[in-house]
Design a protein that fits this description.
By secondary structure, this protein is α/β, with parallel strands linked by helices. It is 37% helix and 22% strand.
């Protein structure tokens, strides 16, 4: 489904959308919420511009772009700028962790007005999904889905303003991962590090969450960093979260942080950034044919080279190079028995078209880059995924 054929009626800014979702989530927690009417655990799944096709029971079809709120194995809820009749059939497009899209069918079960024309729509899927394919593993485990190991994490994480004790704790947690973790003294040093190399995630200690702390968040966003940015504060409440969102933070995490909390945070942010290793090598469906060995060996080399090109393009924000590489992968991978790679390249291209920015499309590009690294022949181990740190002088 091409996004340009769909109508977006959620006419609010990103900050307004996040504030609305925060208000809904806080109200749900205070009221003992967190599961749907069937007693199934729901998890946060904040995604914008989700394509959905709705078929009215009495006839008529509308194509919409909506904002997802949460997700469970049996359904999801989203925000839409209009009313939708219950019992309407629908098709929704979600993206797996590897960047590949899937079309899910379901039925609208609820529609409630939030404010003005904004409504929250509840959808029940016709068939259950494996949450581990769509969200960070700890979320999936908590909601009854599958699991993902911490060893799957391979991003470049830049942490600013943390104490020596915090640093030791973070380093202990990431020791079993492929994360490249770097520390700088304050937000002012983040911009120079980002200019020197690619960074997936930024963590910033904002102290008590006052204006000085929010100025640091704003400065990082002003440096053109568009990846996940987490503010770590001594307090977390609705006002602080709203203030953090207003200046560009994706989340506020309250101290003290324990090892489980740090790992959960890194899982969520890595999934959002696309910086997760594929589970095992990515093999060709043509490998069982005896006449394809030499052909596939060459393509494996080309795929690894494409991954390196994408990583360099992420660092330099070279739109032309990234686009050409994505186009080449999209057009060739399926023919060599790697359809998932072609699908991921198509998803990255669509995101590039929507954003017109390498930085904003970085998660989809990063997923594709790591999939390229995972391409291998059966019996051969795929190389250690390039973290992006090879392009950086951040150490």
């Amino acid at each position: 489904m091409s996004a340009d054929r769909f109508t977006d009626l959620v006419r609010i800014t990103n900050a307004q959308r996040e504030a609305l979702l925060d208000r809904l989530d806080y109200g749900n927690r205070e009221g003992g919420g967190g599961s749907n009417r069937r007693g199934e655990r729901r998890i946060d799944y904040r995604r914008d511009r989700i394509p959905i096709v709705v078929e009215h029971p009495a006839g008529g079809v509308v194509r919409l772009l909506v904002c997802a709120r949460n997700l469970s194995g049996g359904g999801m809820s989203f925000i839409h700028g209009g009313f939708v009749h219950c019992e309407s059939s629908c098709k929704v497009v979600l993206f797996r962790n590897d960047g590949s899209p899937v079309v899910l069918t379901g039925t609208v079960r609820s529609c409630r007005n939030l404010q003005g024309q904004l409504h929250e729509i509840g959808v029940r899927f016709d068939h259950r999904i494996d949450l581990a394919q769509f969200v960070a593993s700890d979320d999936a485990v908590a909601a009854g889905g599958g699991a993902r190991s911490a060893s799957d994490l391979c991003g470049v994480v830049l942490a600013a303003g943390f104490s020596e004790l915090d640093r030791r704790l973070f380093e202990h947690v990431v020791r079993t991962t492929s994360i490249k973790l770097h520390f700088v003294a304050n937000a002012g040093e983040v911009a120079s590090v980002i200019a020197d190399g690619f960074v997936d995630i930024v963590l910033l200690d904002v102290g008590i969450g006052d204006e000085k702390g929010w100025a640091g968040v704003r400065a990082i966003r002003d440096s053109d960093f568009e990846g996940p940015l987490v503010a770590v504060s001594s307090r977390r409440d609705h006002d602080r979260l709203a203030a953090a969102r207003a200046v560009g933070a994706d989340e506020v995490v309250e101290k003290p942080l324990d090892q489980a909390g740090i790992l959960d945070l890194l899982m969520q942010m890595h999934t959002r950034a696309g910086a997760t290793i594929c589970s095992g090598p990515l093999l060709s469906g043509l490998e069982d044919r005896p006449d394809t060995v030499e052909l596939l060996q060459h393509y494996v080399e080309q795929a690894h080279a494409a991954g390196e090109t994408l990583l360099k393009g992420l660092h330099s924000r070279d739109m032309e190079s990234v686009r050409e590489t994505c186009l080449a992968i999209k057009g060739s991978a399926a023919g060599y028995g790697f359809p998932a790679l072609s699908t991921a390249a198509a998803a990255a291209l669509e995101r590039l078209d929507e954003c017109a920015s390498v930085a904003a499309a970085a998660p989809a590009i990063r997923r594709l880059q790591l999939m390229c690294t995972a391409v291998a022949l059966r019996g051969e181990s795929c190389p250690t995924p390039a973290s992006g740190d090879d392009q950086s002088n951040a150490a």
